[in-house]
Amino acid sequence: MLTIANFNTHCGMDGWGRPFDLLAACRSLEADVMVLEETWTPHDPTIGPGQPAEIAAALGYQAVTCPLGDGYKIAPQPDANDRWQPRATFLDRAKSLYFECVRPIAETTRRSPRFRDAEYGTFGVAVLVRDHLPIESSRIVGLPTLSRDRVNRAAAVVDLTVDGVPLSVVGTHMAHLHQGSVSHYRLLRRKLEAEARPTAVLSGDMNLWGPPVRAFMRGWHRAVRGASWPTWRPHSQIDHILVRGACTPVFGEVLPDAGSDHRPIRAQLRLG
What we know:
The protein is an alpha+beta fold and 272 residues long. It contains six helices and 13 strands. It is globular.
């Protein structure tokens, strides 16, 4: 058996920049493998080694990271209220993350109060595997940059053996439909035919509902069904765990609020 969890962590903070206990949230997942999206690693090494490394060291995991781009994470805001985020999060003056890997950040944004004390770092995906399951190999599968996207896109492929079955775990964070993610789905499906083992798990924030994900990723099957976003009133499932080959879901579930705007999901899988 293998227990795998997926969690979009929103860099361990809410939309006002207020941190939540990310380490406790990851511990509560009780998973053999965790795929985490929106992880943060500061460029200044005096701040710390980054969230994937900290979680791995504290909880007994090996971490494979997949950077998607550089940017800025805001500091906790003095005008925060009891909502998870400001109402107008689509406006630059209300964002919590700013990216400069695809397009430069506007000068008006750089002069804004939110940006002034922001921390520079790298945003990405991480696959964490318990120490008792040795990682045999890993690689990054790149996807072309979309002109409407703010970050790069890629997938981390991690190979291990579970219950005698060679397995690949793939972690990713896909773009939105309006940004052109359909082309990425088609390309990722083709690339994983060569880059991942026949028995594989694909996990991530897909920014898309289950039926179209299943249609785009032919040959893969959903292991979890249930609304995962937004945390405070979930109405959509955009976080997914998909399986193929000699991998059978035993159960899947959406877990309670862990601090992010996405709820974690978890599945138990039988191999062989």
